[in-house]
Amino acid sequence: MSQMSERPDFRIERSELASQDEFGEYGYEDLEYYVDVRGTFDKLPLCPDDESLAASGADVAIVGAPTDDGTSGRPGARFGPRAIRSAPTTWGTDAWSIQLEVEPYERLTVVDAGDAPVVASRHARALRVIHEKVFRVASAGPIPFVLGGDHSITYPAAAAVARHVWPRTVGVVHFDAHADTADTVHGSLISHGTPMRRLIEEGWVDGSNFVQVGLRGYWPEKALFEWMRERGLRWHSIVEIEERGIDAVIDDAIAEALDGPEVVYLSVDIDVVDPGMAPGTGVPEPGGLTGRELLRAVRRVVGAVELVGMDVVEVSPPYDQAEITSLLAYRVVMEALSALALRRS
Ligand code: MN
Ligand code: MN
After folding, report:
1. Cα distance between residue 193 and residue 70, in whole Å
2. Which residue, among 190, 231, 185, has the nearest Cα to 208 in the 3D structure?
């Protein structure tokens, strides 16, 4: 029986490659996500005004729309932008997409434009300042990626993008358990159940280019689907996804959104995903997409169209568990950034 002539050396005292300057060893961006006093998306530069935004030359700007005064059920989506911006990640701006084999921040300049200056209890004003903020961002150059907020923010945000690209027209791909096409909810025209109705009735988007994916459950009622049919809306229920698969449905959704328009606005209500994978949301509906299906669908849409704006809405951190939902919403943004980066490379 042989034995080593010398015992091995337990080298743990040499396990840290100590720097000469331990205090200055890590820059702000190199520190982990939770070591962060500033709180921008992925610690990206903050460009809160038109001048800094224009000077940044950014391709994409994150915009917060922290209001939930349009909520009918569980509130809390006003805390969505903060939670999505500070979702737990490990890669920061060195991100490398294993899915798409691209480094999004190498190919794209991305900044955080801060939040629309909303206050609580003045919902019409909130939607007006969100519209103004998103319009200013789009006018300065970058594609706005808007973090909600409840879904009522899609009315001012998508209208701002449509106004910016005018006279080009916009198709919308809308992921949601709910159609959000009610005329009013509890008498309000600006509920989170009504934004798609406002966008279509005001003429920002043609009904026939408004495409909904993931509808399920028991709302809205039958009569609303009649209105949607009259206006030419197209929708793909969860049953169709079960039967045909997400890829075939997404291919159709892209073609329908672009049946006329050249550009696309993407709206992602996180409740399109099953509450088991996205519990932190206002109106959970059992039996939804998997997180994996949604992320794949987002990559597919953004990879195939000219994206002019998007939003991720209805993340309600008080109802979340272990940051599951805010992390998924964050990842929706990352997949869109990566797909856009790949498209531009
Ligand atoms: Mn919605
Ligand atoms: Mn919904």
Report:
1. 8
2. 231
Domain that includes residue 128, residue range = 40-343
DSSP three-state, residue 189 = coil
What pLDDT, on a 0 to 100 scale, did the predictor assign at position 3?
63
Residue with tokens 């919902």, as numbered in its chain? 123
Nearest C-alpha neighbor of 42 from the set 104, 125, 121: 104
For ligand 2, the distance from its centroid to the CA atom of residue 269, given in whole angstroms, is 6
> Ligand 1 centroid to 335 CA: how many Å?
20
User: What is the arithmetic mean of pLDDT over 30-34?
Assistant: 91
Q: At 264, which CATH number?
A: 3.40.800.10
Please give the pLDDT value at position 90: 80
Record the tokens describing residue 118, joined without a space: 């909303």
- Output phi, psi for 330, to 5 deg: -55, -45
**Model confidence at 185: pLDDT above 70:** yes
CA of 17 from ligand 2 middle (Å) equals 49
Query: 37 CA to middle of ligand 1, Å?
Result: 31
CA of 269 to the centre of ligand 1 (A): 5
Query: Does residue 21 sit within a domain?
Result: no
Predicted confidence band of residue 169 (pLDDT cuts 50, 70, 90) = very high
Task: Please give the pLDDT value at position 2.
Answer: 56
